[in-house]
Give the backbone structure.
Amino acid sequence: MPIEYYLIVAAILFSIGVLGVLTRRNAIIVFLCIELMLNAVNLTLVAFSNHVQNLDGQVFVFFVMIVAAAEVAVGLALIVAIFRQKETVYVDEINLMKW
Amino acid sequence: MNGFEFDWIAIAPFLILSVLGFAVVVLGISFPKMYRGTLGTIVLVGFAVAFLASLQSWDDARLAFGGMITADKFSSAFSCIFILGATLTIGLSINQVEEKYLLYSDYFALVVFATAGMTLMASGTNLLTLFLGLETLSIALYVLAGFRRSNEFALEASFKYFLLGAFASGFLLYGIALIYGITGSTDLTKISAYVSSEGILGSKMFFAGFLLLLVGFGFKISVFPFHLWAPDVYQGAPTPISAFMATGSKAAGFAALMRFMIAMQSTTQSGWQDIIWVIAAATMILGNVIALRQSNVKRMLAYSSIAHAGYILIGVLAGNTIGSSGIIFYLLTYTFMNIGAFGVISYLSTAEHEFITLSDFRGLASSRPFAAIAMAAFMFSLAGIPPLAGFMAKFYLFSAGVKAGYVWLVIIAVVTSMISLYYYLGLVVQMFMRDKEADVAATAPLQPAVMIAISIAMLAILILGIFPSRWVSLFQDLARSLM
């Protein structure tokens, strides 16, 4: 298959992720959308890695996964802490500070 | 990956800081009752060792790990700035930590890990190492920003920082992926070779990748339009950490951005200058104008730090030797004056009352002369009034801008920094020319470590302001070695 197919799928996934982050209210869904963006990047990297015939891209994917896992650990802990305090995880209700 | 050798000396500062971080965690678990001052001292000793290790690569440039790491004058200077900033941050934290945030050793460990991430960002010459450094730094800072877990502002700050930070690193990664796809490598020297043969607009996909990378870096250095997180996060984070983010994390962002931009420079007109021009102008105007109407000093400092990022972008744009040396000199002085200013806030705050509104500062000169004088010095320096270091720093950056032909941008910078005088001096007027309100007297106990840190910062801005030439010539050596 030509590489464009992979790139287009990845671009669509990335856009879905971006739109989700911008429009969803629930922090956990927003967080999932960010993960979707990262995985779209992973798909792009792997496709390009095959295309340019070197392994740098595939190695990069491992590092992206490690970082994503670390971010999940911190992010979910933060969401739990927020929920304990405010009893909500809707991002538009977490708005003490403006300007 | 030919010539892949393990050169431990090239990553010595990073290694020392990582080991130090783990050591602090282990010590904190093994001796939970250890006095926090002792732990702080251990961290400071570790920082001193890492500082010496990073100085050592000044004369002895080396490429390591298949070109992923470059230890040269650039990484050496930046690592020293980061370690100085982290040292002052620890100084500010030592007395507060125990009573205020009930912390354990993790606070120190996270500061150390964040510093390790910064040194990696300064020495990375591969998009992979830059990305890893950035994430090491960011993840530590997400946690530190929310360290006052019972405070709802802190949690909100941390949460916003986390979501926006992860969002921005998504863009950064997509940019890296696109650039990798076009050039076939994540190595900055190979990307640079591509840019000099094809130009930055040679391929639409490459240009898109370039813009996405700018989004990621722009978030880290908090320039318009990616600045929205900064005021909230600086307000909610513990004050020493706000100082650390405003200086160290911003300097690290600029280190990575400079490495990247130097790779993007080609002999042909490369097309990114206009974008940076607009971003710089908008950042300076917006930061300074919104800072005018802040009544919370921490938020005011946050907007001022956004404006300062705009000034520093002039140096990035100029791209000449004076510009690059000016950026490093600016970041060095900025580290001292900004940590100092946040330090005074943290010096005056108590667990019950955070000393952050403008009315808190009213009449401070009579009740707390040391704090008032120190704060005034930092404000004058931030505003750029001679003979303090802030003036010389601005002078070098602006003259670099003029020399590179960006006269209008420099005019905008000068006008906006005049606007900034209003809010910097407004605070000084509050402290020295207004009578204090009876019930908001500063009651914080004297904290020797914080006092020492503030005094060091004050001394540094005086020395850098009165004798800048020695430092500038050092940094110019550095800049010449980069070009």
Q: What stands out?
A: The CA atoms of residues 44 and 87 of chain B lie 6 Å apart. Strands of chain B lie at 62-64, 69-71. Residues 270-483 of chain B form one domain. Chain B touches chain A through 39 residues (CB under 8 Å).
